[in-house]
Request: fold
Amino acid sequence: MWRRNIIHLKTFGASVCKRTVINARSLTTQPLAPQCIGQQPLNIGASSARHYSHKSAPLPEPFSIEDSSTENVNSFTYRTHTCGKLRASNTGEKVSLCGWVQYLRLSKFLLLRDAYGIVQCTVGPVSIDFSNIPLESVVKIHGEVTRRPQNAVNSEMPTGEIEVIIDRLEVLNMAENLPFNLREYQKPKEQIRMQHRYIDLRFPEMQSILRLRSQMLHNMRKFLVEQHGFVEVETPTLFCQTPGGAREFVVPTHHAGLFYSLVQSPQQFKQMLMSGGIDRYFQVARCYRDETTRPDRQPEFTQLDIEMSFTNLHGVLSMIESLIVDTFPNLLQKPPFRRITYKYALENYGTDKPNVQYDLKLKNIKELFPEKANDSDFSAYALPYPAALGKVTTKTKEQIRQIAKKYNVKVVLDHDIHKAFTKDLEVKLKNITGNENSSIISIGDLENACNCLGEIRLIIASLLESKNLLKLKETTEILWVVDFPLFTKGNNGLETCHHPFTSPHPEDMHLLDSDPLSVRSLAYDLVMNGNEIGGGSVRVHNVRLQEKLLKMLRMDAAKLRHFLNALQSGCPPHAGIALGIDRLVSMVCNTESIRDVIAFPKTHEGKDPLSGAPNAISDEDKEYYHIVSK
Amino acid sequence: MWRRNIIHLKTFGASVCKRTVINARSLTTQPLAPQCIGQQPLNIGASSARHYSHKSAPLPEPFSIEDSSTENVNSFTYRTHTCGKLRASNTGEKVSLCGWVQYLRLSKFLLLRDAYGIVQCTVGPVSIDFSNIPLESVVKIHGEVTRRPQNAVNSEMPTGEIEVIIDRLEVLNMAENLPFNLREYQKPKEQIRMQHRYIDLRFPEMQSILRLRSQMLHNMRKFLVEQHGFVEVETPTLFCQTPGGAREFVVPTHHAGLFYSLVQSPQQFKQMLMSGGIDRYFQVARCYRDETTRPDRQPEFTQLDIEMSFTNLHGVLSMIESLIVDTFPNLLQKPPFRRITYKYALENYGTDKPNVQYDLKLKNIKELFPEKANDSDFSAYALPYPAALGKVTTKTKEQIRQIAKKYNVKVVLDHDIHKAFTKDLEVKLKNITGNENSSIISIGDLENACNCLGEIRLIIASLLESKNLLKLKETTEILWVVDFPLFTKGNNGLETCHHPFTSPHPEDMHLLDSDPLSVRSLAYDLVMNGNEIGGGSVRVHNVRLQEKLLKMLRMDAAKLRHFLNALQSGCPPHAGIALGIDRLVSMVCNTESIRDVIAFPKTHEGKDPLSGAPNAISDEDKEYYHIVSK
Reply:
């Protein structure tokens, strides 16, 4: 059911476990040549070179975290050992163990489980009746570690060479009315598990994930603080609304009509910290967005938020590369990670977060439509794929039709090409895509034509993989997407692609007035196996430029007066990034949802499965906060 | 203006700076005998013994943080060195420095400041005009480090042996319209500093505090994770209301009439984690309380939240003692810290958070009122103090009168004693308090009579100190207060002293029904120089007992069904604590307010001084959240 992952964490040998779930996102491509972006070179930390010499430690059993040499998980408790760590070398020792009753057998054997593993406890000379103890009750066992007879050794169990002969058994807390058992093969549906998360957390998988998450963040902090002198600063979450961006939760106050907003990120604060001389900032920050309508999102989430002064795009990218390699030392891909431009990603993969674990690239076929040569609103792309896949099913056709509708583009499947166009065009297409390939064609404006094929690419890849016509790279493929456009065309004029504090690309500054849509920005995204796991940008530090951009975006500068003041009172050039921790842990552990890597997640609808929150509140509270619920 | 503190942090020699503010809280007493509390002994981590051998590192200059051996604060930037770290050993090196223009002199000297210190940059052979650069502008200087002529060496400046001869100067960002200068002697009022916090943060004091705060939390994390195998788990902040406790902010949702509450602490979650097998949990947790009316509180604050399974009161106390000593290795007081009971604290210091940096104890003088011997509602206490203080001023008398009024007790000052009572009583009193002492007497019920004298004690101590009649210990005095009562008498019946999940003292369990007010709890507070810096308890793990306590407190068990289910489905015995990080850093840095140790604090009224939040919100937002503001 589980297999080891190629990624594992540096210290304590904390293994990362992947379920053998293969989905569209876990699919190989040839390496892309890193593309270079102008700007001055940087000092890379002297220590960064040594990261490449890390050896991968031997992988431990999937669900346990190894003790480090100094770690003592029994200090300050009344247990002497953990269940999972007893070995033949402990033979003859008197031990006190605490844990949960996992299993009872023949009134003689009790399997005792704690967070570190399972050990068999056996009735010996002292008479012990545990027949009335329900499973999952919490007990304390005093006993002696003994070697099992040779024929009773269980080589599948890390503690299988020994057993503990019980001297005394103490029930610490009886379990009652369990909603489900702790059996991997009887695992209940997600809804039930979430409703009783305190039991679900006892599954080795959840134990492993939460411990890995903690260790990963600790390692990241060590890299930032100990190797590179970053300062963790806690910034407020109760703040004012930031114009643009996601919907922010509001928090009523005792002052009638006045509300805080819960921050969607510490963006303004970290930039003000740069102005304030905290030149190397980070924070494992709680952020809030009211967008529960989007799949696999949580109303509150965690990001590793980083900002540096006196740096540029290369500085941030190198820093993150060092951080990632330091955290996952046996990652096969070494820095520098590939860098591709947004335009390259769009025209080759139909997305700004391409999965390059497999090839399968779009081809620009505009040349086949010479009559449209001068029409800049016309784009035509083909997605060539092995013809051996054959005809797609009606169901897939319908999926593709829906995607085409969403993007408002014309999509033509392979067998319809000669009908929709001409036989001549079909022949010329084969010249481009190769005779062994079929193609799907998309025609529309550039963004939509490509994005549409980008989505279809995932479906085709999945179909090809299921028929062994496509081999996924087993490695984790990380790349940077750079040179995003600064603006996009919204319904009411220019909109920002990243956020309004993103610096325009210095080479395009002269186009700001004349051709803003062609201005590139200094924004960047980090993409892992087709998932965006982080993003950031070089920021605007010049108050005049920031004011101009806000004006172009029709944003109210008055609401950002404090921020603009921070820029004009001596703010250094700065750049930063945020990594989505929930998504990163989910990728590393290969879970289906980020809910699987959060101790107490909320449902799709933003509901807390334990308490039922959100709930009604009292009239007294409404009175106090001057609110009337409609 | 500043002096070094006796407390400093372990790694990187991060110094802690204390202002020479003497206030009532920083006042010496003889050590109190630790009092023992029943319960079984524990394994103390093998590593804890070595904490006592830490040597205190030499203290660095007050405002700088020393680089550790591996830390590289220039990695990933386009500076080669920091301003503050250049020394004679760098002579002859070509450097690139980035920083703020601190001062310009004679069109020849530029003092360049960064977060690490100040260096003098001097115009040499290359002609440079910097007369038009406003102070606090951000510049980059390329130059060569040169020794200053012997007569120009500034021994007061860490970089005073050298200067940087400027080859090239680049203005990175001009400063405009500064609201105030970065001059320690011209420091503006708090209100102005807060409104422009991004400038205020550049003061060395703020730099030092924020960096110390980061380092302190990092050291605490290392202790917990690396030495003792704790797991940091992030828990939600959007949750349901917890019955009892402080007022919780509510967060409206898109679902009409349904609200989240912002958690006042992760209490329920950490206990559910114990049930879930995360047996050693901690979190640097953001908490929310809507109680801006209380002085020096913030609507959001940080606590180091810790919980352990299979432990007891001794386990938690030992763990925190090790943590504190590990974090502040040259703390003079070594574990075990003194433990005094709530009753002892109340009857001797008139408070549950006594400052024992000075003696000055209450005396029970009920024996002087033999006619009240059997009246359990009658208590009489005296606060003896050196008679050399003389008569208190009218102002002090008024203060004392107000305190007496607040507690509704009879207070008699020394010179009124013979009038209020009898000459005979005055003579007997002197037999108790000593001839060299005057006394203030308080008569009422136990709690009020003592608490009243507790407040008066602070005033008298302050007066005595100002007249050199009382010497404060220079050391940091830490102690535990234990054996708090489980309940207190509220207006509508029993109320909880700590929170409803606190375990009754096992020795008093038989009194739960017959005499609940005399039942002690297993709660504990950590008190440093008269300030509560943390508190916690052994929790109830038995669902029946928890249900009984909720019933006694008239709390609705239905609202805690998920929590009660967590207890009954196999929850181990557990105990925990939370340390108030804002308060702790404020104490360590001896700042007047916790606002001084928070990057972006709110005012007394809960207002954000930068953005003006809380603000009005749009009608569209109100519509979306189904709220009408009254």
